[in-house]
Amino acid sequence: MGSAERWRPTELAMLNRKDVSMLGFYRRGVLAGLLLLAVCLLLRGCDFAGGGTVEGPLPEGEVEYSLSWDGDSLDPMLRVMLPSSMTAQFREPMLRLEMRGLGGMVSLISLSNTQTGENHVLVSVVGRKSHYAEQNSQGGVALIFTGARLSGLPESQCRDTAYLGRNCCVREMAFDSLASSRFQLVYDSTIGWPGFNANTPFGEINGCVLQGQWQLFGIRGGMQATRVSARRVPDSLFTVPEGEYSDVDRSTLMQLIGLEGWATQQ
User: How confident is the model at residue 222, as a pLDDT?
Assistant: First the structure.
């Protein structure tokens, strides 16, 4: 059958219409996009919609943790206020830690510049928002971590381990070098940058801690990472919102979170 018989003039005109040709181009573009997405997911090289735990070096991103707390002697109200989860967001040189409790009615945010030692603590208790600023010296520990410091035991050495699909290191640690308080600390040296843990109890650790123990305002607890994500962190998350928080001193801050007695002892 000849070409003239195969295509009628009206059909040839339809094929030459711009809207029809653009439709075909659009369909091919969608197909190409779907194929590219499939390749990304297979190679695990794309962070899709925030993604799950990722592999490889991570200079910028987010780590989510579940938190638990020790001590039967804690005041019942204080125990209720303590957070059950924490989100760490980072991009050199800034580290942001955000914890929430009581269904979001209580929150604590720490904004730390790991190079200059500048630190900001933002506390919100049932709508009352307070801001405390401090300047830490080199090797110092920010207020929220004040308490017993962590140190590696003399016989402690890094042992390779897998955690959340990442190659990590596990070490035996203790509070104030007391063997009786020893625990295992898991960290990933490919997350963050040199000095990532400045102004925290983990100062000697080169990398991001994914599992272990710590002290928040002198209260001992455990931390366990549940997800590691590669994502862009906007500058706004590393700054104190203007006009939203009232400046307070150290004593007032501790009163707000029910630790005024502990504050006077430090």
Answer: 93
Among 191, 157, 162, 193, smallest CA distance to 172 is for: 157
Distance CA 114, CA 127 (A): 29
CA atoms of 28 and 162, how far apart (whole Å)? 42
Which is nearest to 69 in space by CA: 216, 263, 226? 216
Alpha-carbon span 53 to 226, nearest angstrom: 8
The upper half-sphere exposure of residue 98, i.e. CA atoms within 13 Å in the direction of its Cβ, equals: 12
Sign of torsion over alpha carbons 189, 194, 198, 203: positive
Question: Does 30 have pLDDT greater than 60?
Answer: no
Largest alpha-carbon pair distance within the chain? 99
**Start-to-end C-alpha separation, the chain:** 96
Q: Which phi and psi (to 5°) does residue 153 adopt?
A: -75, 150
Q: Count the alpha carbons within 13 Å of 78 in the hemisphere toward its beta carbon.
A: 20
d(CA 83, CA 65): 11
Separation between Cα atoms, residue 200 and residue 53, nearest integer Å: 24
Q: How far apart are CA 158 and CA 150, in angstroms?
A: 16
247 pLDDT band, cuts 50/70/90, is: very high
Residue 13 has pLDDT above 60, yes or no: no
CB 160 within 8 A of CB 173: no
Concatenated DSSP letters for 56-115?
S-BSEEEEEEEEEE--TTS-HHHHHHS-SEEEEEEETTEEEEEEEEGGGTEEEEEEEETT
- Residue 251 backbone phi and psi in degrees, to 5: -60, -45
Please give the radius of gyration of the chain, using alpha carbons only, rounded to the nearest integer.
Answer: 26
- For residue 264, how many C-alpha atoms fall within 13 Å in the half-sphere facing its CB? 4
Q: How far apart are CA 85 and CA 97, in angstroms?
A: 10
Find the mean pLDDT for residues 204-211: 94
